[in-house]
Amino acid sequence: MNKPYEARGPAVVLSGVFKSYRVGSVVTPVLRGVDLAIAGDGLSVLSGPSGSGKTTLLNLIGCIDRPDKGTLCVLGREVGTLPDAVLSDFRRQRIGYVFQNFNLLPVLTAFENVEYPLHLAKVAPAARKSMVNAALEQVGLSAHHNKYPNQLSGGQRQRVAIARALIKGPALVLADEPTANLDSETGASILRLMKTLQELNHIAFVISSHDPQVQAQADHLYNMRDGMLLPGRAVQPTPSWLGSTDDQPVLSLA
Amino acid sequence: MFSKFKLPLRNVLRNRRRTLVTLITLAIGEIAMLIFGGYSNAVVNGVQTGVVRQAGHLQVQRTNYFLIGTGSPADYGIAEYKQLMDTLRNDPVLKPMLVVVTPLLQVQGIAGNFGQGVSRTVAGNGYVAHDQNQMRQWNEYRFPGEVKPIALPEGEQEVLSIGIGVARGLRLCAQLAVPNCSDVAVKAKEDGPPAPADIAALADAQPAGAKQPGVRLDVLTAAVNGAPNVINARVAAAESLGVKEIDDGYLAMPLEMAQHLVYGRTNNPQVTSVILQLQSTRQLEAARQRIKELIKEHGWDLEVLDYAALYPAYEQIKGLFNSIFGFVSMLIGVVVLFSVANTMSTAVMERTVEIGTLRSMGVRRGGISRQFLTEGLLIGLIGTGVGCVLALMCALGINSAGWTWTPPNSIDKIPLVVHVFNSPNLIVGSVLSLLLLAAISSVLPAYRAARIPVVEALRHV
């Protein structure tokens, strides 16, 4: 299993990142020169209204999309130009995802959903069982391990998704609006769970959310509007975080 | 625990109604291919069985007899046929393969029922009745039903068996009590010429006591020296050979009688062919090669012909059924191709978000492709597997039903059977071809699934 990314350096560094989408002949710029460094430990929250570009930024950080322009360094690796297969391997080994709609595989039970990343990582079956049981216990779903997603509540599904994201010991976990489809009470408990697990595992947890409840829990908060980070929330150039890949200024919380 | 097939299998079973429709399509396709293929095989095997029972697997003849010599058996006779038969029977390579080695003398002539004032041309065969009866037992493909012995009594020297067409033409239906055959009254030709005096004299020149009671015919042929020869013999029975054209000219007689007709009462009678019937058609090539070696060793002016060469219609029938089977298979293949492709395309569309999820978890494009290809293969495997079992059950039912049918150009009903169980190539070939089609059908959807950008897949509604 992978060790958490070392807390002393940034997990993510973006420098001058631009991203736009084309719909037909219309090109819509979504990110307009984002400079950002996200710490390797703690709960970082990307906040902002709908259309501000936080999900796009999260997609770039999660290596499921590529910037049009700029440098993107994730967990010490320049990922913007990596081939697709290498990026896939990188995601499999280092990054966990939690989605707004949970995105569990409906044909697999809770146990099997959590087990799946270990199957991808070719972990031996015997080891998988104990790891999955421990993860389900951690998220409080031991009693539901044989249930299929459609037999679970929204909160339970999100707990399974969190267990699935964390089971392989990623250095970086990304969550896109993880509480948006939950009632406030369930959302709060999910948030507490994520915070607890983040602290327990010392990993970088990046959440995109416009939920004030989530923002209140943030160790690092990044506000976005119109594809840019809002000034005034933060921002200290830290060239040393860029390592040997880049020497452009990046942003961090003040 | 996970295996490579767990997720694809569960996805296959996910939309049960759609999967069921696709599986039914595949199963019906498999059943259709196996049953029609089995029927084609049964027809071709049936034709082969009929030919092999009458003409054997191989015949050794004087070179070019088959092409140009059938009208002159005297010129193309095999004088050393007894030595040839002994050589074939005792050869250590051929011996284990042989069922029957028997001589045949083919004669062309005219059969006359002069009492009724009728005659017709016939193609006569001089047989050893016992050997012919043994040949008729050959049944490599296990066709149901009893085999009638040749209507030529064993041991009797001057006796004939005729086709029912000959019986009808010579107005012998009533006398021979032939079922479904009646003598048609023909107005006598009052001004017709009488039989030639020399022919009438020949007919009358039979030894005293030769004319005996019973149904009798005169058979006239050209003897070895070119002179006509005639013999009067009892007609034992009229039999159906199954094909009207054959029945209309068929005449069988004991070998010795045929030899008397062609060669007279000499000490050196000949035959036109030596028939070899083998244990199995699969031995044909090996037997043929060995016979060729023996012919070469002895310096005989002989050639070996197989049943397909002797009966050209066999290959034509085989080709016809093969082409129909190929056409039917092609139609089935197209239906299966589009059915599986439609199912897989719909699955890709419905599961686009899942594809995005898997990709975001680190599954490579190849992994996504493999998953959908595996699903297509599983659908193919289940569909063809179920179809195969059902087809075998259908085949069992058809073969046990006792149905009969009358093939084209035939006048006899034969059992309606399908040869599926004894056609492993057909089973394996149909299963593999449909599996391959299922896989091919999945290639494009699988490729498309793998190429969907992750972000687009996750945003898919």
Summarize the structure.
The complex is a heterodimer of chains A (254) and B (461). With 254 residues, chain A is of the alpha/beta class. In chain A, 31% of the residues lie in helices and 25% in strands.
Key features?
heterodimer, A: 254 residues, alpha/beta, 6-stranded mixed sheet, 4-stranded antiparallel sheet, 7 helices, 31% helix, globular, disordered C terminus, B: 461 residues, alpha+beta, 6-stranded mixed barrel, two-stranded antiparallel sheet, 17 helices, 11 strands
What does this structure look like?
The complex is a heterodimer of chains A (254) and B (461). Chain A is of the alpha/beta class. Chain A has seven helices and ten strands. In chain A, the strands form two sheets. A six-stranded mixed sheet of chain A has the order 6-7-8-3-9-10. Chain A has a four-stranded antiparallel sheet with strand order 2-1-4-5, with helices on one face. In chain A, β4 (69-74) and β5 form a beta hairpin. In chain B, α1 (6-12) packs across α15 (365-401), α2 (16-55) runs antiparallel to α16 (424-451) and α13 packs parallel to α16.
